[in-house]
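Fold these two proteins, one after the other.
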Amino acid sequence: NVKEEEVLEFLYYNPFILVPECVDIEKKPSLNHEHKPDFIIKTSTGYYYIVELESPKKKLFTKEKDFPEHKDLRSARAQMERYLTFVKNNILYLRQRYPDISAEKVRGLLVIGLKSNMSRDEIDRLKALNSQLHDYEIATYDELSERIKALIRLLMLRFHSFAK
């Protein structure tokens, strides 16, 4: 029952959950009058991530044979692809706001659904889909949580002796 604005605020103040190498984040940037992703994140390696958040309640696949994409995912993917196309086609215009942005270093992150609500076959289908995508990744909310927990475990193992 968390409101979208609360999620946006939480992730704005904790952007490493979305992109661990984040050095700068902008919430609800207006690329132009019709393109407003949830975030633009700049990384330490000079990449820019266009981030779009969808509801964790949205579905990724239908239960039909071969698990075709659910309309929720199709719609979200189309939106992400519109953002990325706009950015890449208007890179000179966007350099007014982001001086070091380049088309080769723009990626997308689409966060939607919950892995815990998916079957093993649906999880495999998402992995296969992500392996086919070139400019963006699809992640579930609990996947983001798992990534951060794994990072924390690794850091604790690595630096545990320094904490004593």
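Now the second one:
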Amino acid sequence: NVIVEKNLRQEVVNTLLMLEGIREGSAEHKMILRKFNESGLCPRYKMTAKDAWCATTVSFAFIVNKLAGKQGSGALFQCVECSCAEMVKLGKQQGIFVESDSYTPKPGDVIFYDWQDSGKGDNKGHPDHVGIVISVSGGVITVIEGNKADAIGRRKISVNGKYIRGFICPKYADPTDTREHYPGKLPILPARGYYKKGDGMTTLKGSRDQIKRVQEAVNWVF
């Protein structure tokens, strides 16, 4: 479902966009660490406020959208980690890691960097940093990252540019996504203004039905 895929990708991106600008040590930063630790999806390590938190931020975006799970769980993102190298390893195990630096990513894809990249050939070095792709336009990738100058911020990098290590590309279109999405149509409401007699909206039953449908639509969007 193209619409479901687009929505899921945007949900993951929007999660970090809403936190753009928050700084290390803030209440929001501590919330990210807490959600990560409480998920139990990275039992090998418990994050503290003193740790580098780029991979944790990426993991958080999938955790809060209920898209994360353990290896073999069938979850969209089975790569929850606080280490870039370990996240890459899990991405390979899940079969969603793209090794090619020249890949053109989509919004919601995860991009890794290697600051020791020589710029020659396909980089297969140690991943040092990670973020989530916001958009790609004119050969330029816009990324949002945690722990960028001790905050959540944006970076721009060219497609196939130096320092790209690879990508984790979750299968957003996978039909195994079982989250509930509003299956109905958006409510048909009267024209803006006062209700008029005979418009079908002034009866108690009709109003209740419309309110219920509006609430369902709101729940679907948010």
